[in-house]
Amino acid sequence: MFIGYPCLNWSMNERPNRTFRLASYSDERFRETVAMNLRATEAILRWNLAEGFGYFRISSDLIPFASHPVCAVDWAAEFADDLARLGAYIRQHNMRIAMHPDQFTLINAKDPEIVARSVKELAWHACFLDAMGLDATARLQIHVGGVYGDHAASRERFVREFEKLPPAIAHRLTVENDDRHYSLEDCLWISDRTGIPVLFDVFHHSLHGDGRPVSDCLKQAARTWSKKAGRLLVDYSSQQPEKRPGTHADTLDDSDFSQFLAASKGTDFDVMLEIKDKETSARRALALAQSDPRLRKPCGKTERCKPSR
DNA sequence: AATGGTCAAGTCAGC
DNA sequence: GCTGACTTGACCATT
Questions:
Q1: Closest by alpha carbon to A237, among A229, A246, A228, A226?
Q2: Which residue from A75, A5, A6, A92 is spatially nearest to A38, judged by alpha carbons?
Q3: A3-288: CATH superfamily
Q4: Alpha carbon A56 to chain centroid, angstroms
Q5: What is the pLDDT of residue A309?
Q6: Which of A37, A90, A192, A294 has the fewest CB atoms within 10 Å distance of its CB?
Q7: Does residue A248 lie within 7 Å of nucleic acid chain C, judged by its CB?
Q8: Residue A148: enclosing H or E segment and its boundaries?
């Protein structure tokens, strides 16, 4: 088990998600921004290694406007060396990487143009991971979406559209249960028909699930992950008190997380803490998991990974 | 320097 | 048909 946090690190003076307005786009500005974002990401991964975090979600803002027609720069070629170096670092320390294209990525949209844009969006993410030389354990997670008032039809459409995806995307794609439309059951239904591994979101399951115990869900979701796809991925969060149901907590609820660790004992996975204060909570989670035999730390290639302590 | 309106992309509910 | 919510950081124009 690796513990991770998404995209940003507030305690460092690094921003891996710098962007700018479309109206002020220029190739030069694009290049500068990508270069800064890459350097920041590299710095955060170094920090993660030192702190013991083996799992990280790389920001989709790293390459701004990557799938937009305005972007004519061949960034994968221009930054090939930087990307290869970053990838080598990740592989050397056996780190786990995921990316989460945003909610407008809908391979099952009714409008074929939205589908085409979504495929382009997924394609650049896949290209980015490819350029780093990462294998299929580096995942692209998306929600099912595209409901248009008919869950069943949309679920079917997702399966059909998946079959048409280029292999470079298909072999990295992962579906995640969401908090309003598609439960774990739905994702498993899709997985049965496509072989897509299912990322289990604990918090979403509590908001939109069938009430089944987390331990059962984890076991079911884990069965959808092959050796190639890697360990099961899990998103964890808890409810921010006094806020609309579904609002992610500002900071880790220590007792809720400890209960989750206890309840999940029978399954191994990498867990992403979707908590707003990022690495602050991730550190506490790491401390709470210290005595958990599943916990691993990122390590060098030659040195065998061992459970911490 | 601080502030606040607005930002590529999608869907849905509510007017 | 249009607007705002969803959700959330940050750009950027304005003060």
A1: A246
A2: A75
A3: Divalent-metal-dependent TIM barrel enzymes (3.20.20.150)
A4: 8
A5: 46
A6: A192
A7: yes
A8: none
